[in-house]
Design a protein that fits this description.
Low-confidence stretches: 1-42
Number of strands: 24
Mean pLDDT: 90
CATH topology of the largest domain: Immunoglobulin-like
Distance between the termini: 74 Å
Number of domains: 2
Number of helices: 2
Shape: elongated
Radius of gyration: 27 Å
Strand content: 25-35%
Structural class: mainly beta
Largest sheet: 13 strands, mixed
């Protein structure tokens, strides 16, 4: 009996070894030349312009909505370098690019204005061979690899990596400039849904043909995601955008001039492989409104129910301007002069709550009708 058991074990082991030998050899991941977290500090932090809520840019290819954006927000070729080492410095007579980035408080979108002039536009091929604006965004600056070639687990099968991590925590867009007879962008990952409405929109304006020169204007917005899974948007987590938040962002302009190989890879990042490693992106700050768009004083507030059983509510002052005094009317014949009060309602109900503020610039009130409801 023991001999039979031993023989069966040997046959099983031999079969397992045979099966393992028959498996296709998996490609070895490309080794990163840098370690996560050791990228050199950038020379500057770039700015993302905050559009007022009543001046959100319309995505129509008309750059007039961006006239309000100061030139200090514009990023040009002088901030970029050619990773292909074809050019020591940019030549604006061959290629000139200016990019502005904006955001709107309350919307998790990044707006872009891309303006480029060149003497040979290459966009006849139906594939990747196309003048390209490649951007990578990491909305929470978590960093790390975002393409399978740079995956952390070297023993993971490449396609398993693609469907588990490609573009999930940071997103790469290859935007065709211009796009003619093809989709506007390759969302490089396993989630092509994130380049469609409502998460993205786009419009372009140009009058040249393939092989000609001229000016190109592209307006678009994208939504950065902390999690954008291959299964679709049902489990996606948008990156929350708010004033003074730092995000990871970079881009490259891939220039073609009718030849098989590109004529330059103009990179905003110091590292070529930023396209697949979000740690190598540049820092961008979501700026407050510029002074001319800010109100001198305006009452604003929010609230959160801390304990519904005790009807306990926390109120948060979010007023704009210099404020010297606060008065809260909780709608139940009680009030407070604290800036951020916590209030317990004696009974259930719907309440009209108002905040009154005063400061050197005057007075302001904000009331909310029945937003605060407890039981």
């Amino acid at each position: 009996m023991r001999s039979l058991v031993f023989l069966m074990a040997m046959v099983s082991a031999s079969a397992a070894l045979q099966a393992q030998q028959m498996r296709p050899v998996q490609p070895t991941p490309v080794l990163r030349t840098e370690r996560v977290g050791t990228a050199p500090a950038p020379a500057q932090i770039f700015k993302v312009f905050q559009f007022p809520a009543d001046k959100i840019p319309r995505i129509d290819g008309d750059d007039s909505d961006w006239a309000m954006v100061p030139e200090s927000y514009s990023i040009g070729m002088d901030q970029m370098h050619d990773d292909e080492h074809i050019y020591d410095k940019p030549d604006p007579t061959e290629l000139d690019v200016h990019v502005k980035v904006g955001w709107v408080k309350g919307l998790n979108r990044l707006y872009f204005l891309y303006e480029a002039s060149k003497n040979f536009w290459d966009f006849a091929d139906p594939g990747l061979h196309n003048d390209t604006f490649e951007i990578v965004v990491d909305g929470d600056r978590s960093g790390g690899p975002l393409i399978p070639q740079f995956r952390n687990n070297a023993d993971q099968e490449e396609w398993d990596a693609h469907f588990s991590m490609h573009g999930v925590q940071a997103q790469n867009y290859h935007i065709m400039t211009p796009y003619e007879g093809k989709d506007w962008t390759l969302a490089w990952g396993c989630q092509p849904w994130d380049k469609e409405l409502p998460w993205a929109n786009h419009a372009q304006k140009y009058s040249f043909k393939h092989g000609e020169g001229g000016k190109y204007v592209l307006e678009f917005y994208i939504t950065p995601f902390d999690y954008a899974g291959c299964e679709g948007p049902q489990r996606a987590v948008e990156s929350q955008l708010y004033e003074n938040k730092m995000i990871g962002l970079s881009w490259a302009v891939i220039d073609y001039v009718g030849k098989p190989h590109n004529n330059g890879f103009w990179n905003l990042s110091a590292e070529h492989t930023m396209y697949g490693n979000a740690t190598l992106l540049r820092e961008f700050r979501l700026m407050p409104l510029e002074p001319e768009f800010q109100k001198a004083i305006e009452a604003r507030w929010s609230f959160k129910v801390l304990d519904m059983n005790r009807r306990l509510v926390a109120f948060q002052d979010e007023s704009v301007g210099t404020v010297t005094s606060w008065r809260w009317d909780f709608g139940d014949k009680t009030s407070s002069v604290e800036q951020h009060p916590i209030h317990a309602y004696a009974k259930a109900g719907q309440f009209v709550v108002a905040l009154y503020i005063e400061g050197p610039a005057g007075k302001s009130r904000m009331s909310k009708i029945w937003d605060v409801t407890v039981r």
